[in-house]
Amino acid sequence: MISIPHKAKQFLVLLVKLLIVGGAFYFIYNQLANNDKLDWQKFITVFHKNKSVLGIGFILLLSVMNRYFEILKWQNLARVIYPISLGEATKQVLAALTAGIFTPNGVGEYAGKALYFQKSETKNVVFLNLICNGIQMVLTVVFGTIGILIIGHSKWFLGIIGIAVFIFLFSFFLKKIKIKGYSIEKLIEKINTIPKPIHQKNIVLGILRYLVFSHQYYFLFLAFNVDLPYLTLISTIAVVYFLASSLPTFQFLDFAVKGSVAIYFFGILGVNEWIVVFISTLMWFLNVVLPVILGSYYVLNFKPKTAIA
Question: Torsion over CA of 179, 185, 191 and 196, rounded to 10 degrees?
Answer without folding.
Answer: 180
